[in-house]
Write a structure and sequence with these properties.
mainly alpha; two-stranded antiparallel sheet
Length: 79
């Protein structure tokens, strides 16, 4: 992989990381897109293998958190 491609991939990942509830997270749909699978397929794979992940591996956003995140273009500010 070329250095330029590596930098593009790193930039894409960095832009997909948000701070929510004081934790760095990635939204399932963005992670699925990176792996080139449907979000449903990614979530099913995690649920089937849940014992392989730490208990705090994932959580569901509240409606308010989701709206706050959607309203942000590049970064989120969470209170």
């Amino acid at each position: 992989m070329s250095k330029k491609n590596e930098l593009l991939i790193q930039e894409r990942i960095t832009k997909a990381i948000y701070v929510i509830r004081g934790q760095k997270v990635m939204i399932d749909s963005e992670l699925a897109e990176m792996y080139e699978v449907d979000t449903k397929v990614l979530n099913q794979a995690v649920k089937r293998n849940i014992s392989r992940f730490p208990k705090d591996f994932m959580f569901q956003l509240s409606a308010n958190e989701w709206e706050n995140l959607r309203s942000q273009i590049v970064t989120s500010s969470w209170g």
